[in-house]
Amino acid sequence: MTSTTKKDIKEVAANFDFHGEALDTIFDTYATLRSKCPVGRSEKYGGFWFITKSDDIFAAEQDPETWSVRPSMMFPPVTDAELPPIDSDQPEHTDYRRILLPLFTPKELKKLEEPIRETARAQAAEFVAKGSGADASYGYARPVPTIIFSNLAGYPEKDWPKFDQWVDDIIYERVEKPEVMRAAEKAVYDYFDALLDNWKDDPESSTLIDYLCRAKINDKPLTRDELLRYCYLLFLAGLDTTAWAIRAGIWHLAHNTEDQQKLRDDPSLIPMACEEFLRCLSPVQAMARTCLKDTVVRGQEIKAGDRVVLAFGSGNRDEEIFPNPDKVDILRQENRHLGFGGGIHRCLGSNLGRRELVVGIEEFLKVVPPFTPADPDQKWHGVGPLNIKF
Ligand code: HEM
Hints:
alpha+beta; 11 strands; binds protoporphyrin IX containing FE
């Protein structure tokens, strides 16, 4: 890294990407950028600035007057529609977010504790029955959050494979095959549209769909369009992220059998280990903002209107914040990571996502005997196959 020339670093910056194969070597790229070009410009996707240091990312997160989330936090965007509350600025953001808060209180989470555990336990038993070499991603990490979400949202559990496929098409195909993404997006909207058509106001029922149908902003019910955009966002935000986190945890434990044994010997360490998975192997590597007024970050001028990417995955390995930042240290005490963001848009489902991850790993370790990777080249990132031997 010390031999990186100015020309090299310009090239690294210009080619900086955080999707697809770029993720294979992204931690080396982040380290180079943090030390030589902490704020820089990539020419990918029509051009964007990136911010790689933890403090700068937190500062931007906490300054929504300079950094707008519109037109989309996802970059490149997954959809033309702005999704509430993730793509809304203040003051609308406050109302759009507030309406969801009652769904994510500790009391609501408590109600979900048993269903989460039962789902994880049942899926772990099904997975182990497939035998050594089975795919822990498709066979476990993906179904667990998708089934939990189906119960929460109020659609038939048997439909989870459809959702799983749509998430894949939307999140992972959007860059290479936008037509596949659009078809899946339409299918998801049609699906929720039909659920809303058949909605009956049953006071006994308390699914997410029921809750949204009864919700009001300033005494006005949500429009059909708002309802659909909420459903779409919650589906996008809660499935792939949690599946990635569970898969990443299993990936790490398959490659680091000492850590696996430590968690088997003392399951009370699992929540702390999960924070490390969220820090080092974050499902959300970056989110975008739009600069609203000319500003300077670490000496670099950024103009109003420019798109900027906050590289959470880099901030999470910032050597100025985390000693030995590239080590997944399951006993790490201080862990102020950016896995769930950090400002007014901080993940609303963080407690739910965390619980699914922790319970997901607990149940997996209880049911599946000691395991190692069946193929050592399987990637750390994404929700692709993760075959393991046990
Ligand atoms: C391990 C799992 C998860 C991870 C890593 C994750 C990560 C994130 C991140 C990084 C953001 C953007 C924060 C920012 O820019 O400051 C976000 C926003 C959000 N997430 Fe999550 N998320 C997870 C699970 C969930 C779940 C399960 C749900 C709900 C079902 C959810 C709902 C949301 C919502 C509604 C927002 C937008 C909040 C706002 O704009 O005010 N997330 N999440």
